[in-house]
Amino acid sequence: MKARQLAICDSDKGYLKMLQAYLQKKNPADFEILIFDAVDKALEASREVSFEILLVGEGIYDTTVTKINASKVYILQEDGLKGIQGYSMIVKYQSMERLITQVLEEFALDDNCSSVERRGKNRTTLISFYAPDRHKGQSAAALGAAQILAEKGYQVLYLNLLPFTGFEELMQTSYEADVTDFMYFALKHSDKLLYKLDSLKRNIHGVDYLPPALDYADLLHIDRCDWESVMNLLLYHSDYTHIVIDLSETCQGFYDMLENSDQVYLLTDRTNVYGQARLSHFRSLLQAKEYEKILKHTVEFELPANWEEGCERLENLPASPIGMWMKGVLDKGV
User: Which of 40, 155, 209, 288 sits between 20 and 30 A of 26, alpha carbons compared?
Assistant: First the structure.
């Protein structure tokens, strides 16, 4: 079966090549990327295979565009002086990440646009990180491990399910939507999960991640069955080789997530009597609830005394003390 095609038609050849290179690197929703510097060339190509998405520069637009076979057409707006009607408008000169996010977001919400074909694949490896004593190094350890896996060539998705993450401040960015928006969309439109995922995800040091929840109460409102449904979609129908979960009890499927994990990394602090007591409580609870399976694939680890050095640079955790430490921890879990 031929790949779904995303076509770009614009007279600015430099812009075309730049956008094509970006899309081929990001590979959103497995589209084949085509570029055309003339409308008639795009028309001829669409007669062979209809485009899923067509982006047309406002400057090159003419009525021939109406004849091109495409499920969804977007106009790359430059100055708006042509007065083009009947198409979705996307600002042409903005960050490519933002441009493609807007395209895929609207495409996913359009009921007239096709779904993503389900692809049979091996189950993605699920790795969970958890600290019973709320150790503040949990996220740095989990994200550092995810980046190390990405450096090894794996395709990694990182999900932070902690109540408060501080990611907007730590990463000096802002989020218009978060992981809960993805969850609710995926539950209603599971056939378009990849479009939503690619429109929402961010990337840091080769690791894709969904913006953490702004309000942890939104996570609490997602029930156990819904967590299971969305995780199964990600584990069996995404292209990731590994999903790293930064886990907390905000997830109603907390025990299920741990039990279904291929590996659980349990962050401990044996120098602290309270940390030891909480770890003991957690282990006893798992045994009482007959979750011995979780304990069988659990690796307990501590962090070095200087773990916080360099952690403010989340874009390159593998080079920090915690990154160096996590490389050894991951080796123990293999």
Answer: 40
